[in-house]
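sorry for the late reply, my laptop died twice this morning and i had to redo everyting from scratch. anyway the thing you sent over, i finally got around to it. pasting the sequence first so we're on the same page, its 162 residues, then the predicted structure underneath. double check i copied it right bc i was rushing
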Amino acid sequence: MAAGQLEHELELHVPASEAWDLFGGLGIGNLVVEEMPQSFQKVELIEGDGGVGTILKLTFTPGLPGPAGYSEKFTKIDHENRIKETEVVEGGYLELGFALFRVRFDVIEKGEDSSILKATIEYEVKEEYAANASLVSIQTLVNIAEVAKNYLNRNKAAKEVK
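ok and here's the structure:
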């Protein structure tokens, strides 16, 4: 079994609590469909309410490299430490020989009005499919982080105007 990990960090100019409100439940899934049609065709709630055990079906925009979509399950939501983990449970990377494909978001408090969003992909791929590890890219999570940052900044600016 071959394993790997990719990480990306981005500073958000909002309190960690505001960033967690977006990432801690279903909010980020709804946002990416609205703001990233070039990547996400749809995100469907299959089961759950945004807590541990929730299953989402992600369908990517046709023509992108990698899988056309997959279902992911929320496996960890730690509100105190602001950590959310999801794992692919059907389709996508599992069909390409991966035994594990996990995405984790950590929202780290940096200051009163600042936080860090750390996005991590962890994966394990069966030896006979080791070449497929090259399909794993952090770029979609980088794009999600940027969209989230812009959204949070817009909301912050709107609140300041009121």
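The mean pLDDT is 93.
thats about all i looked at so far, will dig more tmrw
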